[in-house]
Design goal:
376 residues, alpha+beta, eight-stranded antiparallel β-sheet, four-stranded mixed β-sheet, 23 strands, globular
Length: 376
């Protein structure tokens, strides 16, 4: 047996190749070696060149095949609000994010609303939590066939931080997250909508999986929002809030009926070990306005409660009201769900936001806000 079976095989292939180069007379033709080179050496040189070309060709073909094998479909995220396909039984969807307003909390609440859908099965109901990993929140909506039990429609979302370059959907495609004014500056979001989705075999996870820039799964990402950072609070009378520390005075007004109120025990700590951006609710009070539920809270900076807090995401300035902003509020506020809530807020000095949310028009919300006075 030859010491170089691969070389012997290549020699045989080259001999066969040379045999195909026939002259018109039918006799085999050999290339004439250049002057000064022996015929045997010339053949070895030629074969060496062919061998190198052959091996390079094999490498190129292997590289192309490997690249083709790992090609995956990549697409940009759908917007954070838009139309739902008929398979999901709704007309529109909206992903809303807002700070947790419950006193003592340093958390964010996320709500995925399916408008005009009736009772919609959900893979991730509205939730509140303190971001601890690359994933701030994720979930979705699913429609299941009553006859086959298979998925007929799927909407998945994920809100992530800068560590996440893409998210893998159950069918293998990669979704590129987008920036939005609805989110804090450091966050992005990914939304994908699929009709009759076909998850990859063995996937087993109906959720968006975070990936790094190199395409590897981010194991540091929490699968779900972790329990919110909590500080100790105490129940207080909404009619007689504490004279020291955070408090909200609610002036009497027609139709306003106060519920319950909570305040931090003691003063807010100078620093908190939590990720930015974050807000600390140091006082909250519930109320109703002509039967409509509402809540008001005093928010401080979530890391250093004594400094100027960041702007509230997903809000816009109100014309004619300096320092007052408004926007849609997340349905889940830490107290429960308040569908269709309108959030309105104004800065309190240099250390806080007075935030109020109620299911009412902007004009009515401004009227209620006028009857609230915050103290830090």
């Amino acid at each position: 047996m030859s010491d170089d079976p691969l070389g012997e095989l290549l020699d045989q292939l080259l001999d066969a190749h040379d045999g195909l180069k026939e002259d018109p007379s039918g006799r085999g033709r050999r290339d004439v070696p250049p002057p000064g080179i022996a015929p045997e050496r010339s053949a070895r040189v030629a074969r060496g060149r062919w061998r190198l070309a052959f091996l390079v060709g094999v490498a190129v073909i292997a590289s192309i095949s490997a690249a083709a094998a790992i090609v995956v479909q990549t697409q940009r995220s759908a917007p954070l609000s838009g139309r739902l396909p008929p398979e999901l039984l709704g007309t529109r969807y909206a992903l809303e994010v807002g700070p947790d307003l419950m006193a003592g909390q340093v958390a964010w609440c996320t709500t995925l609303r399916a408008l005009g859908s009736g009772d919609q099965p959900s893979l991730g109901p509205g939730s509140c939590g303190t971001p601890q990993g690359a994933v701030i929140a994720r979930g979705g909506l699913a429609a299941v066939s009553a006859s086959t039990g298979g998925l007929t429609g799927l909407l998945l979302y994920a809100i992530v931080d800068r560590r996440v370059a893409a998210l893998r959907a159950p069918d293998g495609r990669r979704i590129i997250p987008i920036h939005s004014q609805r989110l804090p500056d450091a966050w992005t979001a990914a939304v994908t909508i699929q009709a009759h989705p076909r998850p990859q075999a063995g996937s087993g996870i109906v959720a968006l999986t975070p990936l790094s820039g190199s395409g590897t799964r981010l194991r540091s990402a929490a699968p779900e929002p972790v329990e919110a950072t909590r500080l100790r609070v105490r129940g207080v009378s909404p009619l007689r809030p504490p004279s020291q520390g955070c408090a909200i005075d609610v002036r009497a007004a027609p139709g306003i009926r106060l519920g319950r109120a909570w305040a931090l025990r003691g003063v807010a700590p100078a620093t908190l070990a939590t990720a930015e951006p974050a807000f600390l609710s140091c006082y909250s009070v519930t109320f109703t306005l002509h039967g409509r539920p509402g809540v008001a809270a005093l928010l401080l900076d979530g890391r250093s409660p004594g400094r100027l807090p960041a702007d509230l995401p997903n809000t816009h300035p109100l014309p004619g009201r300096r320092g007052v902003v408004a926007g849609p509020g997340a349905e889940n506020l830490g107290f429960g769900f308040t569908p269709g809530g309108q959030l309105i807020a104004e800065r309190v000095g240099s250390t806080g936001w007075l935030v109020m949310q109620i299911s009412a028009t902007t004009a009515i919300s401004q009227t209620v806000l006028h009857h609230l006075q915050a103290r830090t």
